[in-house]
Amino acid sequence: MITLDDIHLSYGESAVLRGLSLHVPKGQSVAIIGRSGTGKSAALRCILGLERPDQGRILIDGQEAKRENRDSWLPRIGMLFQGAALFDSLTVWQNVAFRLLHGRSKRPRSEARDLAVEKLLRVGLMPDVADLYPAELSGGMQKRVGLARAIAIQPEIMLFDEPTTGLDPITASVINRLIREIVTEMGATAITITHDMPSVRIIADDVALLHGGRLHWSGPVAQLDTSGDPFLEQFVHGRATGPIRAMG
Ligand SMILES: Nc1ncnc2c1ncn2[C@@H]1O[C@H](COP(=O)(O)OP(=O)(O)OP(=O)(O)O)[C@@H](O)[C@H]1O
Q1: Name one GO molecular function term (predicted).
Q2: Predicted TM-score of the model (pTM)
């Protein structure tokens, strides 16, 4: 369970999050949507403790998640970064096993490699991929590796930042389905940031539309097309005109 409670975050004079509150129940998968610059990534960075909100609290299973106590909650979170964000100088298995080779979840090297190969298989990659370098893989394979890395520590919470950016529609659909399957089978609580409506419909149970640094609308995916909310309708249909200004 993740709760964002009245989060405010500014960069200098610019207020990005202006009282964002969002509750994601345990085992639910929520997609955060909203136009560029509305603070979606900022919200994710707050959850990860990479930004300190000016005001408000983040609760994980009821416990306040602060930078100071991050050792108690960060190991429970798996993250798939935008563009997969793999380390170029490490092999695929070393990328997947990164948190098993360093820090709190550290395991013996051979055990870490075995676990990495197991996770690679789970995302549809054969063991011979393990010793390749990220540059030798297609974009879709890199996303799979990023996903394998995110699940390597068996997280209870999974965060996905634009998981389909840069992929062709067919590969994107395969990755979306894989994410959905894995989140369901792990029983994880998931938050996905995306602009991609097909992604939302596959990955999420619920949708949260951010606008002006706050939660504007939230509800089940099934209500996406019938909400009657003009902001949501404009976003879902990608219309240039409507209450959300296309420019500025
Ligand atoms: N480190 C920073 N310093 C100053 N401004 C920042 C910083 N990071 C983000 N911003 C600003 O905060 C606003 C929100 O950024 P954020 O990346 O959260 O948007 P977003 O909704 O995720 O957008 P996108 O969909 O384009 O990724 C933007 O206007 C951005 O320019």
Answers
A1: ATP binding
A2: 0.92
Q: Tell me which residues have their CB closer than 6 angstroms to ligand 1.
A: 11, 16, 34, 36-42
Structural domain boundaries in the chain: 27-52+70-237
Fold of 27-52+70-237: Rossmann fold (3.40.50)
| Ligand 1 midpoint to CA 53 (Å) | 14
**What is the complex's ipTM, to 2 decimals?**
0.93
d(CA 186, ligand 1 centre) in Å: 31
The one-digit pLDDT tens for each residue of the chain (248 residues) are 999 999 999 999 999 999 999 999 999 999 999 988 889 999 999 999 999 999 999 999 999 999 889 889 999 999 998 877 899 999 999 999 999 999 877 899 999 999 999 999 999 999 999 999 999 999 899 999 999 999 999 999 999 999 998 889 998 999 999 999 999 999 999 999 998 899 999 999 999 999 999 999 999 999 999 999 999 999 898 888 888 876 54
